Amino acid sequence: xxxxxxxxxxxxxxxxxxxxYCVGRNYAxxxxxxxxxxxxxxxxxxxxxxDDASVVPVSAGTTVEIPxxxxxxxxxxxxxxxxVIGKGGSHIAVDAAPSHIFGYAVGLDMTRRDLQMKMRxxxxxxxxxxxxxxxAPIGPVSRLADAGEINHGAITLTVNGQTKQSSDLKNLIxxxxxxxxxxxxxxxxxPGDVIFTGTPEGVGAVQRGDAINVTIDGFAxxxxxxx
Length: 227
Prior knowledge:
The chain has 227 residues and is an alpha+beta fold. The chain is 14% helix and 34% strand. Strands 4-3-15-8-9-12 form a 6-stranded mixed β-sheet. Strands 6-18-17-13-14 form a 5-stranded mixed β-sheet, with no helix packed on it. Strand 13 (154-159) and strand 14 (162-168) form a beta hairpin.
């Protein structure tokens, strides 16, 4: 598979994706709706493929079609802030984390929920529920130099115009800087790494024909249609 490039706001450049990390259950209300205690335990991570089969770049002002995946009857949306790493490092201090950020984008962690739950119940890895083709749509990247450090801002997802998820980035259990610091103790981060920072409550299923729109204050929105 070919490397994926994400559009960068205000330029004709593309940001090459190296790895895709995701934080699990990073909003208390979402942890509760998934049946877990939202106590502030250390964050946990999973990965998605970084190739052009899984990562779906979505340019500003466009709607990209993504296919309803196979082997599921419970296909869920999860709206997320995506952090794009511009400078690598290991064991990064929390207060130094912003200096490693290139920018931010709006993302969707699409999930075959029935397969994820089956694997969870059996104590097996989540890949078939999380790491399938077209599972990671990502919008244009806004540079940190333009957007500033992000610790709050409304995050909203609609399906066919109806609001399904509505929260604020200030409700993250682990802040962006804390996520970067913790992840960097497990993996040496490198330029091109992207981090999905978790989804708020309200996740739910979509069907063929549904239009999903995700907005986060200050960033280009993300629009996809399920086909």
